[in-house]
Amino acid sequence: MNKQTTTKQWIALLAMGLGVFMGLLDVTVVNVALPTMARGFNTTFTNLQWVLNAYTLVYAVTLMIMSKLGDMYGRKKIFLGSLILFVIASAINGMAPSLFVLDIGRGVQAIGGSGMMSLSMALVASNFSGKQRGLALGILGSIIGVSSASGPLIGGYLVEHFGWPAIFYVNVPFGIIATILTVIYVQETPSYGKNHKIDLIGMMLSAIGLFAIIYGLIVKESHPHWNWFKPEVSGLLIGGVIIMIIFVLVEMRVEDPMMDIQMFKRPHFLGTITVAFALGAGIYAYNAFLTALMQNYIGYSAVQTGVRQLTISGWSLVLGPVAGILSARYSKKWMIVISLLVGGGGFFLMAKSISPTVSFVELWPGMVLMGIANGMVNPLLNTAGMEGALPNEMGMVSGLLNVFRQFGTTVGVVGLGLIQDAQYETYLNGHLHTISSLPAHALDGIKEALVNAGPFSGHTIAFSTRMAKAPFAQDLQRIVIHAYDNGMAAVAVTSGIIVVVGAIGAAALMQNHFSSQDLNK
Questions:
Q1: Parts of the chain with a pLDDT under 50
Q2: Is 26 part of a structural domain of the chain?
């Protein structure tokens, strides 16, 4: 009987793992398909931004709502409904006749993805116990780590061989398998909110507040030279913060709140969300810049980039189960701290390796250390977060860990992008005028074009066929590459600092042991 029960549990984990993998993969997999989509829809990259933003925004905004619904009505029910919704939306996206339909479909798909992601950890925690729980959460952490980093590889392969609709169609068969396995093998959790009222005001406020903040950051990312005080940016950010403050005040007074604000009084919980934010703002945000470096400047294809980035994501497969086993014997807190410090060392190695002739040979040692940190911290964070939560809070804790991880990624991409832009522009301003063969009347125009294009696209201008014919081409190309390198080194150092700060937060706030008094404070 014990053997049968254990087998059912691992099949249940497979079902939840499939859901999580699909939900997180679709955050990044679309990036490599954008050029093909642009040709297919006969549109520009700017118009395609909402294919990315619709998923990112709706995913982040609905994480807490889906978590609460799972806690109230049963996590399996909401997980299963989210999975079915995700599969249907994926099929619609693959068949989308227009960009508008695809944008809407991506938003609907994100609701399903957030439901699967926010409830997966809580379902694993309730379907496993004892040492098996740590191992299962470790495996789930592996899946989270791999799915977040494998988008370029999987997306590149599918687009290259089957076209862009394949990145959505592939979810359908795997989603159907996951649905069947979930129905049969995943055990339902108690409905902790049967007699509670749905906190509609809290749900609306949290959704609007998060939407405003994250959309404000996206607007700033799209317009790096806009001032933070420009109404289109500051209005959204300030408005979002005000709404979130109102949300907190409302939740403190509502009889059946969407979220128990008392959770934020627990140092351990604050420590776990600090680590989740550092993972997003440091490791996951940096992946976008690393991908641009490997594709735009080194010249690897999407598939070649994805294969090399297995140096990071591959560690999640290996270390997730190991971390789960070790978490039953050793301090999760100090394992997280040490792993984050290792990751910080990886970023500093990356910063040192950046040069005009950089290749994968120079990058891989730092990437390995980043991968080890990600592979260890994700599963340990899941286990530590669930240990510090009451049974009726597990869905919300799982959702909040994912909210802070996703919010950290968004903040990181914007913040690191601004740092890279500033270093890139400063270097151009300080060196372009030294090109003796560059006519004075052309200097301002070329500088403006390079600055407006930004670090990601400046390389395309400098190495264009038209520019290559100019007598100053080689000098210009050399300066553009050095400017980009300056920005990338600053991005790597900043990411390393973020991860180290996360380690300090974990050391100061997280606990090793819990009592009922700790959780009820």
A1: 1-4, 516
A2: yes
pLDDT of residue 1: 37
Q: Is 409 left (phi over 0), alpha (psi -120 to 50) or beta?
A: alpha
Distance from C-alpha of 150 to C-alpha of 146, rounded to nearest angstrom: 6
User: What is the structure's pLDDT at 94?
Assistant: 92
Say if 114 falls within a structural domain: yes
Between CA 299 and CA 305 the distance in angstroms is: 9
Asked whether 280 and 406 are in contact (CB, 8 A), the reply is yes
DSSP state of 257: -
Look at residues 314, 107, 86, 316 and name the one whose alpha carbon lies nearest to residue 178.
Answer: 86
Q: What tokens appear for 384 in the block? A: 């530590």
Closest CA to 348 of 501, 480, 500: 500
Phi then psi for residue 23, to 5 deg, are: -60, -45
- The pLDDT value recorded for residue 136 is 83
Give the model's pLDDT for residue 302.
72
User: In this predicted model, what pLDDT tens digit does every residue of 444-468 receive, in sequence order?
Assistant: 788 778 887 778 777 777 777 777 7
For 265-359, where are the alpha helices, taking DSSP H only?
267-278, 285-292, 302-308, 310-326, 332-353
Amino acid 515: pLDDT: 55
Where residue 116 sits, what CATH number does that domain have?
A: 1.20.1250.20
Rg (CA), the chain: 23
Residues 40 and 162 occupy one common structural domain: yes
* Tokens 């989270």 -> residue: 144
How is residue 15 written in tokens?
């079902």
Angle formed at CA 374 by CA 303 and CA 364, multiple of 5 degrees: 50
Q: Which residues, at least 6 apart from 86, have a Cβ–Cβ distance to it below 8 Å? A: 19, 22, 23, 109, 112, 113, 115, 116, 171, 175
- Chain centroid to CA 274: 15
Alpha-carbon distances, residue 296 vs 14, 134, 293, 348, 477 (angstroms): 37, 40, 6, 22, 13
State the pTM of this model: 0.84
End-of-domain residue from the set 195, 226, 246: 195
Q: What is the pLDDT of residue 347?
A: 96
Are 138 and 180 found together in one domain? yes
Cβ–Cβ under 8 Å, residues 75 and 150 = no
Domain of residue 220 covers: 197-255
